[in-house]
Amino acid sequence: MVGRVPDEENGHVGVSRLRMFVLGVTRPLATVVLLVVAYYVLPSGRRLDHGDVWLLAVGLVLVTALLAWNVRRILRSRHPVAQGIQTLALVIPLFLLIFAYVYVVVGEDPPLNFSMPLTKTNALYFTVTVFSTVGFGDITPVTEGARVLVTIQMVCDLLVLGGVFQVVVTAVRRARAASPGAGQPDARPHRRG
């Protein structure tokens, strides 16, 4: 029937809710899990030399490019909120894992650049404590190079916390405002019952 709202009996609403659950929860969760698994699987048995600063630079360029690409996807999405959640689930963990990986590589380089050897778990823990501004102090950079690297992370953290969230929220708002019927009441008759 024309003008009739699909009801749960014929499955349209149930399928739509399932799709939104998958888009809004399952897919971002799977993205985070895959990124963390890739971080732990990625080999790290190499030492960093002064020419390998490109590792961090390439990683940050990758994060920036993924953010830009995903903002375009948000603006074109039928489900901008779900796409915004997916973008945050990709960009922020990837950003943190890139720093953690660099810390692992730097942590393997004698003399000891941090107050303790950095395993992948220690490096991830340290990265998250710096990102969250908690900084327990149990792991600290002890060389000038490590301190510079951590300072770069702190500055980038501020950009991510202030900038990435703002860019994603703004894109979601613009996409929602541009969608057909945005801000207009639903003219379809509703079933009571």
UniProtKB/TrEMBL annotation:
Keywords assigned: Ion channel, Ion transport, Membrane, Transmembrane, Transmembrane helix, Transport
Gene3D superfamilies for this protein: 1.10.287.70
Residue stretches making up the Potassium channel domain: 94-173
Stored SUPFAM superfamilies: Voltage-gated potassium channels
GO biological process entries: monoatomic ion transmembrane transport
InterPro entries: K_chnl_dom
Keyword Amino-acid biosynthesis: no
Organism superkingdom: Bacteria
Membrane spanning stretches: 21-42, 54-75, 87-106, 148-169
Pfam families referenced in this protein's UniProt entry, alphabetically: Ion_trans_2
Protein name (Swiss-Prot/TrEMBL): Two pore domain potassium channel family protein
Originating species: Amycolatopsis panacis
